Amino acid sequence: MVNRADVARLAGVTPAVVSYVMNDSHPVSPTTRRKVVAAIDKLGYRPNAVARALATSRTHTIGLITPDSANPFFAELAAAIELEASADGYTVLLGNAFNDEARELNYAHTFADRQVDGIIIAPVSSAEGVLEVARARGVPVVYTDRTSYDAGAPMVEVDNAAGARQATAHLLEHGRTVHACITGRQDAFPAIERAAGWRETLTGAGLRARDDLLVFTDFSTEAAYAEALRLLSHEPAIDAILVGSDLQAIGVLRAIYDIGRTPGADVSVASFDGIHAGRYTHPSLTTVAQPFEPMAAAVMELLEGLIEAPENDALPGITRILPTTLVIRESCGCAPHQGQAGLGTTEVPIGVPSNPTQGVR
């Protein structure tokens, strides 16, 4: 088995210098660094992770907790975070809370026991317990997606209300007059904001945002399908539905078909998230796309800032608000466009804020 002494011998340096390069703990000349890196590559040296953690007080691991890893939005966001973390030298441990706060809290304890360098969480609701556990153990936390602006830790979010406003405005452009909204649970902050954007846009257009046509339910296909059937039976005149997530929208499209109507033609549908599968639904989904890669980059930047400087008291107040993009396909009633990959896609940026890395509230 290759060890540090073998690398040092090939590079013509001491084992201590190899450690300096591996841990970036002492200044090393560029020439010496190149020699060490070349020796590492040639020998295929992989340092003992436990020994490295003991030497540096770092494990180079991050815990990521999501509400539901089966939800394509969280799966795609997790993939983007893992790629970003890997590029920065971190391994990601994934915890699926299954929308259960007790399970979520258990993952916080587990990750702290494993001495992760930090935790990223898209919480089931407020996740106050997770923050308490992490802080008691000295583990920095960054929130993303399902949380409010007063979470007490740095967070990365998109402008949910602005995205909902633009999607609703687009449905109004189709001449739709009886609008419904099916979104996530009321303890999920994005659901509240998306419903608010829907309401504001209808009111601004002189239409009534009817409370009986606004539904908060689980972010699931099944729940949205059931609620869509109920709403369309309650009010057959519904001709537009804003849906809080693409996963829910799949259920809504099915419900519209099952009552003998056609999505896009009879009922305009727009949703939120921008998952890859939305290109392939029938009709393809018009959706407010969240920027997975920029979200991952912003989350990692904030977390690494806390890892490197845990005493930094300014970071917990930072909220980064990233802009979204309205992706126009067929479910709203638009004719297919010759867009991306020939899949009937065109994109309309929602430019709020103008500088996504500085969207701080």
Write the layout of secondary structure elements.
Layout: H1 4-11, H2 15-23, H3 30-43, H4 49-56, E1 61-66, H5 72-87, E2 91-96, H6 101-113, E3 118-121, H7 128-136, E4 141-144, E5 155-158, H8 160-173, E6 179-183, H9 189-204, E7 214-216, H10 221-234, E8 240-243, H11 246-258, E9 268-273, E10 286-289, H12 292-308, E11 319-322, E12 325-328, E13 346-349
Parallel strand pairs: 1-2, 1-3, 3-4, 4-5, 5-11, 6-7, 6-8, 8-9, 9-10
Antiparallel strand pairs: 10-12, 12-13
Helix pairs in contact: 1-2, 1-3, 5-12, 6-7, 8-9, 10-11
Structure description:
There is one protein chain. By secondary structure, the protein is of the alpha/beta class. The chain folds into 3 domains: 4-55, 434 Repressor (Amino-terminal Domain), CATH 1.10.260.40; 61-157 and 292-321, Response regulator (Rossmann fold, 3-Layer(aba) Sandwich); 160-290 and 324-358, Response regulator (Rossmann fold, 3-Layer(aba) Sandwich). 42% of the residues lie in helices and 16% in strands. It has a 7-stranded mixed sheet with strand order 7-6-8-9-10-12-13, with helices on both faces. α9 (189-204) links the parallel β6 (179-183) and β7 (214-216). The N and C termini lie far apart (52 Å). Mean pLDDT is 87; it is low at 338-342 and 351-361.
